[in-house]
Design brief:
81% helix; 8 helices; mainly alpha; elongated
């Protein structure tokens, strides 16, 4: 094996997103918020309500699951990362819903939301966005799996119907990817972006600028993934055409 082959073999074991600057920025924001700002903020509290711990378990779980699953996709490490992606995703999704419920109770029924109404509204909007991303992301991957089973069972009439099923399968996969990346950068990231905006004066302009940055990062990461899905399908069909000739 040549040195070039060795380098290829080595690099093939490195998750592609590990060197993706967009993923690194999102992960850095996550790490700053969860591991630095959050504990520092909690340490200043004289008393911590028990529900806050339950909320944090859910919030930390879904956010860290996003970090994990955007770096270890099902195809990473020649497919060996697939079960980790699935189970981390499932656990994160369930705990994320619980975190939202506990956070909603704390924000509007236990704490006084009027003390910082803009924060209460913003944090709730982030939680609702989280649920939307989780719902549509989960629904799309379930549809993707159902179509996959149908194709593998040969339940189609001709190649035209097969291509139609494959196109729909790709569309559902892309929808899943887009929602999960939005969950990472936008929904889960909103609390951190709100706190980060405080370092820039806490103005609405600072917050909107950071949200715009998060949208850009989300698109910057999801667009190449979408193109990769489409390119993979085109390559598969080209091989089928070449073999049939």
């Amino acid at each position: 094996m040549t040195r070039e082959d060795n380098n290829k073999a080595c690099c093939s074991n490195i998750p592609p997103n590990a060197t993706n600057p967009v993923w690194l920025i999102g992960t850095t924001i996550c790490g700053w918020f969860l591991l630095y700002h959050g504990p520092k903020h909690l340490a200043k509290k004289d008393e911590i309500h028990p529900l806050l711990y339950l909320h944090l378990i859910g919030a930390y779980s879904i956010y860290l699951a996003c970090v994990h699953n955007t770096i270890l996709t099902p195809s990473t490490l020649n497919g060996t990362a697939k079960p980790f992606h699935i189970w981390v995703g499932r656990i994160g999704m369930m705990l994320g819903i619980a975190g939202f419920v506990f956070g909603l109770l704390l924000t509007w029924f236990i704490y006084d939301p009027s003390k910082n109404l803009s924060f209460s509204i913003g944090i709730t909007a982030g939680g609702i966005a989280q649920l939307f991303c989780q719902f549509f992301g989960y629904r799309s991957i379930r549809k993707f799996q159902a179509i996959k089973v149908q194709i593998e069972a040969g339940e189609y009439k001709d190649m035209e119907e097969l291509y139609s099923l494959e196109n729909e399968q790709d569309r559902q996969l892309v929808t899943h990817i887009e929602n999960m990346i939005s969950l990472f950068f936008l929904a889960c990231g909103i609390p951190g972006l709100m706190r980060l905006a405080d370092y820039f004066g806490g103005s609405i302009v600072a917050l909107l600028s950071l949200i715009a940055l998060a949208i850009f990062l989300s698109l910057a990461m999801s667009t190449p993934a979408k193109l990769k899905v489409l390119a993979k399908r085109a390559a598969q069909r080209q091989i089928i055409i070449s073999n049939s000739q």
